[in-house]
Amino acid sequence: MPVLPSHNSLMSEISRRSFFDRMTDGLYGVALTSLIGQQALRAAEKQPFHPAPIPENLAPKRPHFTPRATSVIHLCMQGGPSQVDLFDPKPALKKFHGKTAPRELTGNAVFEKDRTGKLMQSPFEFKQHGKAGAWVSDALPHLAQEVDEMTIVRSMYNVHPNHEPAIYKMQSGQTFPGHPVFGSWITYGLGNENQNLPAYVVLADPSNRLPTNNVDNWMSGYLSPLYQGTRMKATGSPLLNLAPDYASVDQVARTKQDLLKQLDRLHQKQRPGQMELEARIQNYEMAANMQLEATETLDISQETPETLAMYGIDEKETDSFGRRCLLARRLVENGVRFVQLYTRGQIWDNHSNINKSLRTACGQTDLPIAGLLKDLRQRGLLDNTLVLWGGEFGRLPTAQITSAAKMNVAGRDHGPYGFSAWMAGGGVKRGLVYGNTDEVGYASVENRVSIQDWHATILHLLGMDHEKLVYERNGLGERLTHQFPTRVVHDIIA
C-alpha cells in the first residue's frame, strides 16, 4: 500500500512565499467569479421578455391588458381590390389618362416594363359619405352608407407583388409557408369563450373551391393543431359526419362518451408531451359537444325575413356570401373567437375589363358586408367585434393592356406598394380616413402601415402585446410580427 505523507511533512513543504502565492490565486478566482456573475446578470437583464408558456387548450385565457375587442371577423378579399377604384380617388389619373406617369407624381417609384401601360382614370364615380366625408366609389353603394363605422387605412403596403407570397405575408407575417397564421396566434393567446364550438372557424366558398394557398390560409404552423382553422359549410350539415348515422338513447351515448374520454386520457398519460395527440383528443371531444350546438348555431332558419334580406340571402348575386356573413355574426354571438370569410376564387384579381369585373366582385359582397355591420351594431355586438376587410395588396394605377386602343376594356395589375383596407368596431375610431398614397395611388407615402403593423394593432385591440405573445421553439421566442420593425398604429384606436 502507498504511504501517505503526514500532516507535518505537508506543512514543511509550504513556505511563507508559496502560502501567499496560493492565497492570491484564490482571491483572483473569487474576483473572477464575481465579475463573470455580474456580466451574466447584465446579459440576462438585456434578454427579451419571454412569458410563461400558454397552456395548450382552448379555455379562455387572460389577455395582457384590458381588450377593446373580444372577437374578430376577417373578410378576406383575396386577389387585390383596387384602391383607386374603391376608397382612394385620384384626380391626377383623370388629368393624365392614357399618358406615362410624370416622375414628380411617383417619386422614386420604379414601374416594371411588363407591368407599365399608361395611367388609367377610374371608370367609377366617387362621392363623399358620412359625417367625416369619406370618399367611396359608386361600386360600393351599400358600404358607402356605413363609412361612419369604419377606419379606412389608405396607406397599407405589402412586400411582394405575387399572390402566393403576399397572402402568406398577410396571414402569417412571412412570405413563405410554415408559420402560424394570425387567426391561430389569436386563438393561441386567448382561447375560446365557447368550448362546444371551434375557436377559429373558416367559411370558404361553398362550391369547395379552396382559396389561393389552399388550407395554408388557416394552418397553425408550429403551434399546436388545436389552433388551426376549422372549415364549416354554409349550407347543409356544417361539418362532415357531425351527426351519428344511427339512433341512440341519450344516456347510453353520454356513457359511451365518458368511457371514451377516460380511455383517451389513459392513452395520453402513457405518452406525455405529444402535442398532436393532445390536440386530436381535444378535437374529438369538441366534435362530440358540437353535435348539438354547431347545428343550432348555423341554423339561419331562426332568423327573421328582414334579417335575411339585410344580408341579401335568397338573391342570386348575394346569397352565397350573404349566408356566410350571417353565419359569422351567429358564430361570434355564440362565443367563437375568430371567423374568416373567403370570396369565390380571386374575384378581386381584375387584370382585364375592371369596369365589369370589379362591379361583379362588389355586387357579390357589398350588400352582405353592409348588412353584417348593421346587424352587429343593432345587436350591440360591434363594440367588441373587430371587423377586418382587405386583400393581400391593391392594384396599379396604370392600365394593363396590349394596345392603347383597348383602354376601355383594360384592367389593372398587382399593386403591393400602396393599397386600402378598413377596420370597424372593436375599439377603432369611427369615420376615420388614415394615411395616403401618392398623387396617382401607386405607393403609400404618409402614415405608412406595414402588414406587421396591421397585425400588431389587431393584437393590441384584443388586449395582447405582440412582443409578449411568444411561442418558444428551438430556443427562439417566435411571434406573429417576427423580428421586423413594428408599431401599433395608436392613431386609429378610439
From TrEMBL:
Cited InterPro entries: Alkaline_phosphatase_core_sf (IPR017850), DUF1501 (IPR010869)
SUPFAM superfamilies: Alkaline phosphatase-like (SSF53649)
Gene3D superfamilies: Alkaline Phosphatase, subunit A (3.40.720.10)
Pfam families with a match to the protein in the record: DUF1501
Domain of life: Bacteria
Family annotation (PANTHER family): BLL7424 PROTEIN, DUF1501 DOMAIN-CONTAINING PROTEIN
UniProt name for this protein: Sulfatase
Species this protein is from: Gimesia alba
